[in-house]
## 1
Amino acid sequence: MCEDCGCLESEKKIIVNKSVTQVNDLLAHQIYHNLQDKKVICINLMGAPGSGKTTFIEGLISYIPTKELVVIQGDLESDIDKIRLKKLGVNTYQINTHSGCHLNAEMINKALLNINFEGKKYLIIENVGNLVCPAGVQIGQHMDIVVSSTAEGYDKPKKYPIIYLNAKLIIISKYDIKDAVDFDEEKFLFDIKNINSKAKIVKTTSKDKESFKEAAFFFKHQREHIIENKHSH
Amino acid sequence: MHEIGITKEIIRILEEECIKNNIIPKKIKLELGGITNYKEEPIRYYYDILSKGHSVLNNSQLEIINVKGKVNCKDCNKVTTIEDPYFVHCKNCKSFNVKIIEGKDLKVLEIISK
């Protein structure tokens, strides 16, 4: 028996030293640059189930022409959200993960092969509804945004800080019912500031189309910034 | 459920390496970083299920080496360890403006053959 590691001398040891997470991250890196070259900004839209992610996209198209937008929808099952968006003229591709709790770079890469980006400026990836698992998973996005509804309560940032940490934009959705659900806006904003002082905060109400204007213009501006900074990543 | 995807990826790497080196694995050494968001027990659970009856990986065992997360703070310049993977911040000055220097990987280190 070998005195160093205890192996039997007839055994063979192969040094692999391969990062499992790196496979995903390398592919995500390629997707990032691929979309940047196409002048398409890629937005990773995250939030709890029912927070209002699809509604957010529906609101955006009052200010972003549908011919400039493509959406990748991520859900465990069904194409409910794809049908919803297609009815409004949004080019939408559905990914069903079946048991997967978040999207990964391989899934996005496969989806991109089926998308025609001619005339497109915005790709919104609506991630699987989940405040835990999608956080920090690279899928080729240029920015992360989180939809956090008043109905979920003010304490989500404190309980699930990772997903809020890198978000460039945080949408407080269902703002019109904030009093009915006792949403403590002051506490929410205070906790967000402690986790991520740089995030832009926008309040939206699905019935008020104008409440989506600020987010749409933010994306327009961010897209220009991403395309100009082709060499920084 | 969260670890099923990453365990499938581990298996894909092992299949590739075992076929390339023409070996049947007995033991596999993995390094599990503390900031990866993956836990040891579910990886073992899914590995047991997915390797059972596998033409190459059947009866192989995982040895998982846990590596604590370490960050270098850009504000106070100190290197501190991470206790909670969901709270990646400087233990010294509580800043979130940190660079992860250790523990953000899940790696296949070695394969020991039969």
## 2
Amino acid sequence: MESSDAVLVARVLHGEVNAYGALVSRYRDKYARYAVHMLGNREDAEEALQDAFTRAYRSLARCEDPERFGAWLFRILVNRCRTSGARRVRRGQTFIHDETALLNASQEHPAEQTMWREEIERALGELSADQREAFLLKYVEELGYDEMAEITGVGVSALKMRVMRACDRLRILLREVHSG
Amino acid sequence: MADWGRTTLELLVQELQAPVRLDESFDRRVMVRVRRLYAERRPRGVAGWIAAAVNVTRRPAYAAALAAGVVAIATVGMLRSRPTSVAISGPIPVQFVLVAPEARSVAVVGDFNNWGLGDTALVAENHNGVWSVSAPVPAGVHRYAFLVNGEKWVADPTAPRAAGDDFGQPSSALVVEATAE
């Protein structure tokens, strides 16, 4: 039977460093999706995720509810993605279309959907980082607004506004693609 | 191509929810970082503790610990504890040793490290079944225990048993003296 997060966290805190590997495996892919979509390229996403896991390990003792390690880790990742995104903006980079990520994500899909996926990634890149974050948390990660507020530190009203604007913008961008 | 009988938003979300898979090399890279952090945080100077105990002049920290008489050595059926007095102010290095060949991990928890809560557990190093860790302990009367495999709470089998077990678990007594010579 799989160990719970709380059991794995306890084992790590008591010196079984390898138990952390089980937590990494458990959350690696689940959270890679968010990082890739948020940052738009696999390299930055992996770096942000590695940072998140490392920071979580370093602060593991401060995880107040080890049973919810995943949620705690995700909050760290969201912050890492913000930092990474801000750094990229300072470097003058734009949202990068990531072919590798798309191919990876498309393995279970017919080849003819590649263009659709490219359109989506491009449209996501057109959003502001705040809007993209709110949209991904709400619709892709399927979090409630209260959870989103807890993770982002942003008020529920502001988050709803960001999601709404993100949806409006995406509809326009994707409609333009299909009508053009 | 897209099924335009459904909303654009639904199709968009469906696509974005497709899994993104990282390969196992990612795990290895993370664990390299984690193990490095783990190594940096482990108490230093434990390796070679047996030699140090035999020839304490080579290791001042151990010499202080031994001189202070606050060496808590728990073996299966054998304990040595030699409390004396030294002119040392502040925490005094104490070496904890447990012989447990079958253990996967051993940590020391006590009132001097908040019972291992947070990241304060003292993780012992394994030397062929002899687990050892050294830690500074303030002068005073303390309680401690060994945490084996992260779950089994083991009192020092030969040290004095502390009255009133904390957390419903047995613990041992440790007296650290720091008085002038």
